[in-house]
Write a structure and sequence with these properties.
It is a single chain. The two termini are about 40 Å apart. The chain folds into 3 domains: about 240 residues, 3-Layer(aba) Sandwich (Aldehyde Dehydrogenase, Chain A, domain 1), CATH 3.40.605; about 190 residues, Aldehyde Dehydrogenase, Chain A, domain 2 (3-Layer(aba) Sandwich); about 280 residues, Aldehyde Dehydrogenase, Chain A, domain 1 (3-Layer(aba) Sandwich), CATH 3.40.605.10. The chain has 28 helices and 32 strands. By secondary structure, the chain is of the alpha/beta class. Helix 8 links the parallel strand 7 and strand 8. The structure holds nicotinamide-adenine-dinucleotide (NAD) and manganese (II) ion (MN).
C-alpha cells in the first residue's frame, strides 16, 4: 500500500501487542496449574482447558477444585487469620502497598494475559482493568492504615470466601481481595472457569511480595467448586459477583448460617438522553456504555431511553458511530471490540437477539469476523415486554426506546427487576439531578458512564444485589460488629379463638393497624394473650391477607421517603412526647403482662428516649462526597430501602419494637411491623399514639399474630424491600428472601437487651439505608 493510499483511506494497519512474556510464562506452566494454597502452588489435579476465545485455542490447563482442595484452602486461611488480623494496620498496609507496586511493575504482562484469556481489547486491559487493579490496592493500603481508628467497634469477619466472574477477572479479584485483606480477613477466592489465569499470576505476585502464607488462597474450578466454598462451615463471609440466578442460589444456601453475604449481580441499566443533552457526547457515552468489554459489563447501559424529539437524530448518529467500530483481534491496539468470552456466551447473545427479532424488534448490526465474535448491535422497536428489553443480554447489544416526558423516562428506567446503574444525559442540572433522585439504582452517572474508582462504593438495588464494593461502605462490608448469640426458643402455636358471628369477641379485641386505620383480621379469629396470672386480653390473629394489605398500604405511603429529615424528626419527637404523656398506661400494660414494675417503668422510659434519639438522627445521618476521578465528585447519598418488614423481639415488647421501627422510620422507610407474639398489647396500645402524632397513614402498619408465619409472608413478598427479624426461624426467613433478594437482617431472641444501650446504634441506621453513588461533573 502506498503512503498516499493510507492517507486517503485513513485505515489502521495491524498493531499487535507483543505476547512473548506471556507465552514464556504459559510455556513454563505447560504441565497445568494447581491451586495456590498456604503460600505455595499444589500440583495439578484433574484439569480442564483454558482457552483464548479469539482463536479458540487452548492456552493452559487448570485444576478443577475438589471439596478436599477447598477444605485445605479454608484451613490455611483459618490458620493464618489471627496473625494477619493481629498485625498493626500499618504492617498490613505495607503488604497491600507492595501488591499495588508489583501489579504496576507487571502491568503489561497482566494486561496481555487478561486479553488472551478473556478476549477483551488490549486497549481496555492496559488502560482500564490493570490500572484500576493497582488503584484498588493503593486505596485499600490506605484503609489498612486507618481501619482501627475509623471502625473502632468492628472486627474482621475471619475467613472470606470470594467467587468472581469472567468479565473483569483481575479487577474483580482486586475489588474483593483488597478490602478483605485491609480489614484483617484472610481469603479463599475462586476465579471464573473461563478466565482463571490472571488470578494465578496474581498469586505468584503475592508470593513474590512476601504476603504471609495462607492470607490469600486461590482455588480454581467451576460452579461446583464455588458451591463448596459457599457451603463451607469455615467460611465466615461470602462475597459474590455474577449472575442474579446464582446470587439467589447462594442466598438460599447460606440461609441461617450466620455468614456475612454481599452480592453484586446483574443489571439492565438505563441510559437516559434528554432533549437538551450534548448529543455527540451522549453518542460517545453509548460506545463506552455498551461496547466497552463487548458489553459484558454488569452495569452496562443496555437500555437507551431517548427523548422522542431527538430519537431519529440520535439513532442515526449512533448507527454511524457503530459502523466505525473495529471488531477483531483483542491484542491489536486498534481494536475496539474483542472476542466474546466463550462460545456459550456468544450463542446466548445470538439466541436472545433472534428471539427479539421474532418478537418484532428491528436489528441493526455492524460487522464482526468469524469465530467467537459478535457485532455491535442496536435494537429499535423492542416492546417493553420483549426479552431484549427485560433480560440481561451481556453482549454488545443495546435497545433504543423513545420517551415523551421525564416521568415516562423514570417509569421506563425503573421498569426492571434490577437496579445496578443508570446514566443520565442532560445539560440541565435540575433535570439531571431530579432524575438521579428518582431512578432506583446504586450507581448513577450524570453526563458520563462506566466511571469507577476505589473511593466510591459500587453495587446495586433490588435484584442487582446488596452490599457495596469500594469506599467506606465497601470496607464496612468486610467487618462485623461482635457476634451476639441468643436463645433458640420456638414460640408456641396459637390457639385461634373464633371472633364469633356477632363479632362480640372481636369488638373487645385489639385490632390490626393498617393504612392508618384499625382493622379486623381477615381470619375473623383472635388469640388469647396471657399475663403472669392468666389471660389479660385478646389480640387479632393476623394472616397472609392482612400482611398483604399492610404492604399495599405501606407502598402507597411512598411520600414519606421524600419528607425532609427535619419533618421526620418533628414527627418522631411528637411521638415521644405523646408516649411520655401516657407513660403510666404503658407501664401498667407491661406490668400486667408479667414485667416487674421497675423494669416496666425503665422500658417505657427507654422507648421514649428512643423516639428522641432517632428524631435526633433523622436529619444527621448524612452521606458523603467522594473525591474520585478528575472532573467529578461522587455524592454518596443515604436512601431509604422502601417498605420494611420488622419482626420484633419477644421480650421488651415496647422498647424492642420501637428500637427497630424508629431507625427505619427516621431514614424514610415505611414499616409493616409484627409485634411480640407473646406480649402484643403494648404494641396495639401504640395505635392511638401513632394516630395523634401526625405519622401519615400507611407509614406504620402493625399486624399481630403468629410471628414466624407472618415473618415468612413478609420474606416472600416482592413488595417488601427489606426485613428485620428477631427470632428462631432465621434460616427460613433468609431463604424465603431470595425471591426478590430483599435485604435481611436477623438475630436470635435474647441476643441483646433491647431496653438497654444495645438497642440503639448507628448500625441500625446503616442497615435502614442503602448508598446511592451519584457521579456529577465538577471542575471539568
Ligand atoms: P455465573 O453467575 O454462573 O458465574 C459467576 C461465578 O460463579 C463463576 O466463578 C462461577 O464458577 C460461579 N458459580 C456458578 N455457579 C455457582 C454456584 N452454584 N455456587 C457458587 N458459585 C457458582 O455467571 P456466568 O455463567 O459466568 O454468566 C451467566 C450470566 O451471568 C451472564 O450472561 C450475565 O448475564 C451474568 N453475569 C453477570 C456478571 C456481573 O458482573 N454482575 C458477571 C458475569 C456474568
Ligand atoms: Mn479463557
Amino acid at each position: 500500500m502506498k503512503i498516499s493510499e493510507i492517507m486517503t483511506d485513513m485505515d489502521y494497519g495491524p498493531a499487535p501487542e507483543a505476547q512473548d512474556i506471556v507465552q514464556d510464562w504459559l510455556g513454563r506452566h505447560e504441565a497445568g496449574f494447581g491451586h495456590f494454597i498456604d503460600g505455595t502452588f499444589t500440583g495439578a489435579g484433574e484439569t480442564f482447558a483454558v482457552t483464548n476465545p479469539a482463536t479458540g485455542g487452548e492456552i493452559a490447563r487448570v485444576t478443577q477444585g475438589t471439596t478436599a482442595d477447598v477444605d485445605a484452602a479454608v484451613a490455611a486461611a483459618r490458620k493464618a487469620q489471627p496473625k494477619w488480623a493481629g498485625l498493626q494496620g500499618h504492617q498490613r498496609a505495607r503488604h497491600l502497598y507492595a501488591l499495588a507496586r508489583h501489579v504496576q511493575q507487571h502491568a503489561r504482562f497482566l494486561a496481555v494475559l487478561e486479553s488472551l484469556d478473556n478476549g477483551k481489547p488490549i486497549r481496555e486491559s492496559r488502560d482500564a482493568d490493570i490500572p484500576l487493579v493497582a488503584r484498588h490496592f493503593y486505596h485499600h493500603a490506605g484503609w489498612a492504615e486507618l481501619v482501627a481508628e475509623e471502625f473502632p467497634d468492628r472486627q474482621p469477619w475471619g475467613v472470606c470466601g470470594q467467587i468472581i466472574p469472567w468479565n473483569f477477572p483481575l479487577l474483580m479479584l482486586a475489588w474483593k481481595v483488597a478490602p478483605a485483606l485491609a480489614a484483617g480477613n484472610t481469603v479463599v477466592l475462586k476465579p471464573a472457569e473461563y478466565t482463571p489465569l490472571t488470578a494465578l499470576a496474581f498469586a505468584e505476585i503475592a508470593a513474590e511480595c512476601g504476603l504471609p502464607a495462607g492470607v490469600l488462597n486461590i482455588v480454581t474450578g467451576d460452579g461446583a467448586t464455588g458451591a463448596a466454598i459457599a457451603g463451607h462451615d469455615g467460611v465466615d463471609k461470602l462475597a459474590f459477583t455474577g449472575s442474579t440466578e446464582v446470587g439467589k442460589i447462594l442466598r438460599r444456601q447460606t440461609a441461617g448460617s450466620g455468614k456475612g453475604l454481599t452480592l453484586e449481580l446483574g443489571g439492565k441499566s438505563p441510559f437516559i438522553v434528554f432533549e437538551d443533552a450534548d448529543l455527540d457526547a451522549a453518542v460517545e457515552g453509548v460506545v463506552d456504555a455498551i461496547w466497552f468489554n463487548q458489553g459484558q459489563v454488569c452495569c452496562a447501559g443496555s437500555r437507551v431511553l431517548v427523548a422522542e424529539a431527538i430519537e431519529a437524530r440520535f439513532t442515526e448518529r449512533l448507527k454511524a458511530r457503530m459502523a466505525r467500530l473495529t471488531v477483531g483481534n483483542p491484542l491489536d491496539k486498534n481494536t475496539d471490540i474483542g472476542a466474546i468470552v466463550h462460545p456459550v456466551q456468544r450463542d446466548r447473545i445470538a439466541e436472545l437477539v433472534a428471539q427479539g427479532r421474532a418478537e418484532g424488534a428491528e436489528i441493526h448490526q455492524g460487522a464482526a469476523p468469524e469465530g467467537c465474535f459478535y457485532p455491535p448491535t442496536i435494537i429499535t422497536n423492542a416492546q417493553p415486554a420483549s426479552v431484549l428489553s427485560t433480560e440481561e443480554i451481556f453482549g454488545p447489544v443495546v435497545t433504543i426506546t423513545p420517551f415523551r416526558t421525564p416521568d415516562d423516562a423514570v417509569a421506563l428506567a425503573n421498569n426492571t427487576r434490577y437496579g445496578l446503574a443508570a446514566s443520565i444525559w442532560s445539560e440541565g442540572i435540575t433535570q439531571a439531578l431530579d432524575i438521579a433522585r428518582q431512578v432506583k439504582a446504586g450507581v448513577i452517572w450524570v453526563n458520563g458512564t462506566n466511571l469507577f474508582d476505589a473511593a466510591a462504593g459500587f453495587g446495586g438495588y433490588r435484584e442487582s444485589g446488596y452490599g457495596r464494593e469500594g469506599g467506606r461502605e465497601g470496607m464496612a462490608a468486610y467487618m462485623r460488629s461482635p457476634a451476639r448469640t441468643g436463645q433458640e426458643t420456638d414460640l408456641p402455636a396459637l390457639d385461634p379463638v373464633p371472633g364469633g358471628p356477632t363479632g362480640a369477641a372481636l369488638d373487645r379485641t385489639a385490632k390490626l393497624f393498617i393504612g392508618g386505620k384499625q382493622a379486623r383480621p381477615d381470619s375473623g379469629y383472635v388469640y388469647q394473650v396471657n399475663g403472669a396470672k392468666g389471660p389479660i386480653g385478646l389480640a387479632a390473629l393476623g394472616s397472609r391477607k392482612d400482611i398483604r394489605n399492610a404492604v399495599e398500604a405501606a407502598a402507597k405511603a411512598s411520600g414519606w421517603a421524600n419528607t425532609t429529615g427535619h419533618q421526620r424528626a418533628q414527627i418522631l419527637y411528637y411521638l415521644g412526647e405523646n408516649l411520655s404523656a401516657r407513660a403510666e398506661e404503658f407501664t401498667a400494660r407491661l406490668t400486667a403482662s408479667g414485667t416487674k414494675e421497675k423494669t416496666a417503668r425503665a422500658e417505657v422510659e427507654a422507648a421514649i428516649a428512643r423516639c428522641f434519639r432517632y428524631a435526633a438522627w433523622a436529619d444527621k445521618f448524612d452521606g458523603a462526597v467522594h473525591n474520585t476521578v478528575s472532573g467529578h465528585v461522587t455524592l454518596a447519598m443515604h436512601e431509604p430501602l422502601g417498605v420494611m418488614g420488622v419482626v420484633a423481639p419477644t421480650e421488651a415488647p415496647l422498647a424492642g419494637l420501637l428500637s427497630l421501627m424508629l431507625p427505619a422510620l427516621a431514614m424514610g422507610n415505611r414499616v409493616v411491623a409484627v409485634p411480640s407474639q407473646t406480649h402484643p398489647l403494648s404494641a396495639t396500645d401504640l395505635y392511638q399514639v401513632i394516630e395523634t402524632s401526625d405519622i401519615p397513614a400507611g407509614v406504620v402498619n402493625i399486624v399481630t399474630g403468629p410471628r414466624d408465619e407472618l415473618a415468612r409472608v413478609l420474606a416472600q413478598h416482592d413488595g417488601v424491600d427489606a426485613l428485620w427479624y428477631v427470632g428462631s426461624a432465621r434460616k427460613q426467613v433468609e431463604a424465603d428472601s431470595a425471591g426478590n433478594l430483599k435485604q435481611v437482617w436477623t438475630e436470635a431472641d435474647g441476643a441483646r437487651d433491647w431496653a438497654g444501650s444495645e438497642g440503639q446504634s448507628r448500625d441500625f441506621l446503616a442497615r435502614a439505608t442503602q448508598v446511592k453513588n451519584i457521579w456529577v461533573p465538577y471542575g471539568a
